[in-house]
């Protein structure tokens, strides 16, 4: 594996993160429950990780602010535009696969 400087690694990770966020914004047809059921994380998880990283660096960030960064709009707006009611099958799969805290 090619060695990269710490700065390069951070730059590449940030670019991959930005691409992931852009992809999730473009794929509003993919519901969070589907992401959770298939990958074990969703847009809300990503926004929580972002907020936790900011707070670890001493930068206060609210849940709503971090969600807006990930969704590209206020979360309530995104939900009204794109979120559907989860089907019984999706709910069952979530209960079987949800992360244990």
UniProtKB/TrEMBL annotation:
InterPro entries registered for this protein in UniProt: SMc04008-like_domain (IPR023163), SMc04008-like_sf (IPR036810)
Protein name (Swiss-Prot/TrEMBL): SMc04008-like domain-containing protein
Pfam families named in the record: DUF1244
Location of the SMc04008-like domain: 30-95
């Amino acid at each position: 594996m090619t060695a990269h400087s710490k700065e390069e690694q951070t730059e590449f990770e940030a670019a991959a993160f930005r691409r992931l966020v852009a992809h999730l914004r473009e794929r509003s047809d993919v519901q969070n429950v589907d992401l959770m059921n298939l990958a074990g994380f969703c847009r809300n998880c990503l926004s929580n990780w972002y907020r936790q990283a900011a707070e670890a660096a001493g930068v206060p960030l609210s849940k709503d602010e971090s969600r807006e960064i990930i969704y590209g709009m206020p979360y309530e707006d995104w939900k009204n535009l794109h979120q559907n009611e989860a089907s019984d099958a999706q709910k069952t799969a979530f209960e079987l696969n949800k992360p244990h805290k």
